[in-house]
Amino acid sequence: MDTRALLSLTTVAETGSFSRAAAALGFTQSAVSQHVAGLEKAAGAPLLTRRPSVAPTPAGREFLRHARQILAHEQAARAAVTRLTGRDADRPVSVSSTPATEHLVPTAGPLTAVVVHDAATASAALASGGADVAVVDGIAAPRDPLTGTDTDLIVRLVAEAPVGVLLPADHPLARRRVLDLATLTDTRWLDTTRTRCATSDLSAAARLRLRRGAVYSGSSTDTVASLVRAGHGLHAAPMSGALPDDDPAAPAPDGLTVVPLTSPRLVHRIEVRTHASARPAVLRLAEAVGSPGRGTGRPAL
């Protein structure tokens, strides 16, 4: 199957326009139209509507899901060949990290930039060759790796800490020794996706639907603390000692407390991922991630 045609289809679907797709890809509009028409003929069904707007049909949505996987595999194959042939030997190392782990990446050495993504996007960038190293965090069962690990990757655990519940110090549950998440599903939780111990991660790992409170799309731990303190929702937090330079005796921010979550037992993990075939400069930088004194300091939570 012609990957150029797949690229045309995915770009038209993303831009909603044949002309914009052609401009983005450097193809003629006629070529893009022919690519899409050829795929529709092969599929035996329309993949895109043309009127009143350009959008995937139900068959097109399913076809696009597979098309994106094929394109991702092709990118991964090209990146693997580049690594094995040494054609990237002189290229600076690139890192894709989650917002909560950006500060753990060394700031010295042959580093181009740290690009901040969610965990899934950071892992995809590593697979496609868009990044040499991925530094990701998330919530999992104890001793379980985070999702999205390929067999050809080196995965190093930087830190793993039990998950607790961050709540105002005057909250009725603040005096509890431990908490059961199943009893907190009717309690409001901050609706977060980019924070350390994001509520979306907690809900997925626990397989529980949590009642959502205020929506926060950023990654600032100070903002999370302020929102919890103001009563806009609870939030998960790693217990003290979650990072190599944590002070295990450090208290929670003023006006807050963290109560251990024991049911289900969950941990916040930070992992460094790189390819086993990566060049020495990449492996050295990956090994330095999270080393005390190598980052730019840790967040407050």
TrEMBL record:
Q: Which domain of life is it from?
A: Bacteria
All copies of the HTH lysR-type domain together span 1-57
Instruction: Determine if Transcription is one of this entry's keywords.
Output: yes
Gene3D superfamilies reported for this sequence? Periplasmic binding protein-like II (3.40.190.10), Winged helix-like DNA-binding domain superfamily/Winged helix DNA-binding domain (1.10.10.10)
Q: Which SUPFAM superfamilies match?
A: Periplasmic binding protein-like II, Winged helix' DNA-binding domain
The portions of this protein that span the membrane are: none
Q: Which UniProt keywords apply?
A: DNA-binding, Transcription, Transcription regulation
What family is reported?
Belongs to the LysR transcriptional regulatory family.
By what name is this protein known? LysR family transcriptional regulator
